[in-house]
Amino acid sequence: MFKGICRETHNGNMVTKILKIPKFFTCIRNFSSENVLVEVNNKTNTAILRLSRPPVNGLNLEVLNEFESLLSQLEQQKVNGVIITSNKEGILTGGIDIAELQTIDQRRLKKYWTTFRDTFLKLYNTPLLTVAVINGHSPAGGCLFSTACDYRVMTRNYNIGGNETQLGLVAPIWFMDRVADLIGHRQAELAFTQGKLFSTDEAHKLGLIDEIVENTAEGLSKAQIIINSFANVPKKAREISKRFTRQQFLDKMIRDTDDDIRHFVNHIGSNETQKIIEQYMQKLKSKRF
Ligand SMILES: CCCCCCCC/C=C\C=C\CC(=O)SCCNC(=O)CCNC(=O)[C@H](O)C(C)(C)COP(=O)(O)OP(=O)(O)OC[C@H]1O[C@@H](n2cnc3c(N)ncnc32)[C@H](O)[C@@H]1OP(=O)(O)O
């Protein structure tokens, strides 16, 4: 028997059911956490991870910890590929849950940023094939996490990019480096100094995403096609090639760990930045953009 979790909405309330699924008859393995739904198709051995934290899949400490732990489990299960998407069409994630930034407690900020970096590194460094199906807006932290994947498809008419500068914040240098890897240094320079959010079409033209799809279903089947296209590639050689192409970025990010965490704590923990964050939250709540 597999134990699975099924979440359904009844009269507007989310209900969680524990399912007992006979191993023989199911084609889905299901081991969701609180904020991340996971299903593994037994036939294709591909996992779909769906961010599921209303209202905007904000990346708080719990989501990051769950995501990292689920990826570790999927590595142990040696799945053929992982597809990362949102359970809510229209928003992949609103990025960092701003509540996590509303503190001057240095220990909390340090813990959050260490977890944020570790989760990104886990995704960036996993030997598994990863495809992001960006089925909604993906500002800041959302864009960053999708850049860690091996391939990105995105549905039309949404926005993606690093908007931190627009908010009066400074994006981490490794986010800038990663975007520069994808769209080139000049375009990254323009994008981050302006805090630019790109439309799906613009992101595609620049190479920030690889393909455009019409909806989530098409995105998921496209992601499966990408994963299948690696079926005849020797696994070990692919994994080592992935590691080699990513090694330089990784080495730099790890070498700069202490500086990066110190900058984050000083930047976010300053009274000046706290005021900016507070004003931004008020704007967000009153939708004054
Ligand atoms: C010296 C320098 C050193 C540098 C070191 C490194 C420093 C790194 C610093 C910062 C890094 C920041 C990265 C981030 O990720 S910051 C977060 C950026 N995200 C955003 O700006 C997104 C804001 N949200 C939106 O644009 C929209 O909400 C959207 C996601 C497009 C969804 O729109 P919509 O469907 O219309 O939903 P609402 O806007 O009505 O939102 C619903 C409720 O959710 C709240 N919300 C939205 N986003 C967030 C968020 N990121 N965190 C917390 N809460 C969020 C929103 O206020 C609504 O709440 P309520 O219903 O109570 O009004």
UniProtKB/TrEMBL annotation:
Protein's UniProt keywords contain Ribosomal protein: no
SUPFAM superfamilies: ClpP/crotonase
CC annotations in GO: mitochondrial matrix
Keywords: Acetylation, Fatty acid metabolism, Isomerase, Lipid metabolism, Mitochondrion, Transit peptide
Pathway stated in the Swiss-Prot or TrEMBL entry: Lipid metabolism; fatty acid beta-oxidation
Keyword Isomerase tagged: yes
Alphabetized InterPro entries for the sequence: ClpP/crotonase-like_dom_sf, Enoyl-CoA_hyd/isom_CS, Enoyl-CoA_hydra/iso
Protein's GO biological process: fatty acid beta-oxidation
Name of a matching Pfam family: ECH_1
Chemical reaction(s) catalysed: (3Z)-octenoyl-CoA = (2E)-octenoyl-CoA; (2E)-tetradecenoyl-CoA = (3Z)-tetradecenoyl-CoA; (3Z)-dodecenoyl-CoA = (2E)-dodecenoyl-CoA; (3Z)-decenoyl-CoA = (2E)-decenoyl-CoA
One function term, GO molecular function aspect: delta(3)-delta(2)-enoyl-CoA isomerase activity
Entry's localization field: Mitochondrion matrix
Subunit (UniProt): Homotrimer.
Function: Key enzyme of fatty acid beta-oxidation. Able to isomerize both 3-cis (3Z) and 3-trans (3E) double bonds into the 2-trans (2E) form in a range of enoyl-CoA species, with a preference for (3Z)-enoyl-CoAs over (3E)-enoyl-CoAs. The catalytic efficiency of this enzyme is not affected by the fatty acyl chain length.
Record-linked PANTHER family: ENOYL-COA DELTA ISOMERASE 1, MITOCHONDRIAL (PTHR11941:SF45), ENOYL-COA HYDRATASE-RELATED (PTHR11941)
Record family assignment: Belongs to the enoyl-CoA hydratase/isomerase family.
Protein name stated in the entry: Enoyl-CoA delta isomerase 1, mitochondrial
